[in-house]
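Example record for the data management plan.
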Amino acid sequence: MEHILELYQKLYDSRRPLVCFDEKSMQLLAHITDPLVLKLGQAARQDYEYKRNGTRNLFLFVEPKAGFRHVLVTNQRTKQDFAFAMRYLVDVIYPEAECIDVVLDNLNTHHYYSLVEFFGKQEADRIMNRIEFHHTPEHASWLNMAEIELSILSKQCLSRRIPNEWTLITEIVTWEEVRNEKKAKIRWNFTVDDARKVFKEHYPTTLTC
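Corresponding structural encoding:
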């Protein structure tokens, strides 16, 4: 835990960006009956029945200190999808970065061997030479600031029925552009000192003879 918190306290460095990564499953739901036309002073009204159109996975990258985020929409979140997401991070989003610190949770796809399995060792090593993974402790994924950004995405963009992938991508791109234009940052205030106070009962005590 302290390692992640110390990472968050480092000064911003564009040559070594800090990127938090997480994913979210999104169910595509279409109206069977058109919603009623909105009227002033009334809440939105829609029929309780809907049509399921499958699911999509959202990979979210957020650079909290720079106020930048980007979302990839995929059909699944397999090892292969994770591997391609990491290559996209290195080659497309941050082609000029010397190294990228990536904070992520302990999902079983989130490791170097996912890249080896689908790209081979040579390509996996090329990608990993520009990435350093920082896994959150088990049961402490709340340390990943990407969860905050996913919550904002859900509230501002996804809190309604979205019928298909095209609409989903269009809505996310629009939300993303507005947030990036504002350079909306995440200000993380929980420090190592705070952790030692809040979780002091979990810290080992010095043993004496």
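Summary line stored alongside the record: The chain has a mean pLDDT of 91.
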